[in-house]
Amino acid sequence: xxxxxxxxxxxxxxxxxxxxxxxxxxxxxxxxxxxxxxxxxxxxxxxxxxxxxxxxxxxxxxxxxxxxxxxxxxxxxxxxxxxxxxxxxxxxxxxxxxxxxxxxxxxxxxxxxxxxxxxxxxxxxxxxxxxxxxxxxxxxxxxxxxxxxxxxxxxxxxxxxxxxxxxxxxxxxxxxxxxxxxxxxxxxxxxxxxxxxxxxxxxxxxxxxxxxxxxxxxxxxxxxxxxxxxxxxxxxxxxxxxxxxxxxxxxxxxxxxxxxxxxxxxxxxxxxxxxxxxxxxxxxxxxxxxxxxxxxxxx
Length: 299
Description:
The two termini are 45 Å apart. The protein has nine helices and eight strands. Strand 5 (137-146) and strand 6 form a beta hairpin. The protein is an alpha/beta fold and 299 residues long. The strands form two sheets. Strands 6-5-4-7-8 form a five-stranded mixed β-sheet, sandwiched between helices. Strands 1-2-3 form a three-stranded antiparallel β-sheet, with no helix packed on it.
């Protein structure tokens, strides 16, 4: 008798979402109309059946269809045009408002994962803001970028552009970059010096004069230069959002811009570095052509 037949095959144990027990086993398949067959599990402790939530639990459309819609949207196709595309290639169509809900939901989901990543960056961080309207009123998209890897480190959409909003973006950048940043470049907006001091600490105001960052203030009107890298990023964003007729509310605006951050860092290949920024700034390895789907499964 072959000894290999006596060896027990070890399967990766699935944790029960109800009681966190690992005493689980496979129990049949759950057949769905649009997503096909899904493996069902049974918990020996709480005696409940469950399926693994891979990010698409209770969704009536396939992961491929959902991620396709998200990818088309961030490549410049409107939600109504995405709907027309799905009508031509999929038997079950969906409303353009449903597509927008997918974009908001999965942008938030992926960002909650990518925002926790520690990044490897250069010494300079550029920060700037863009004006967008929400229901006719001013709104501001504040973002920061690492000049070496082109990775968008931190961003947020706000109703106003004040010192506390700048501090929130800078503190998130500080958390991700630790002590790697030595120079922060901004325009001549007067709120930046105090915001940088409260988040990173300016080196000339530190006690030892050894620890902190240098604030490089660049004002184009005074011929002091131009923040080319972050302005190039803003041109990409304007190219995508120029067809918008303003955002409906702050929550959806923030979610859409978070999705853009994910698209810029993980999906779009940057011409200057000939790869995606995440390949230089993080340890994540994405091997699938559908990076949206892979990021959702990694979360």
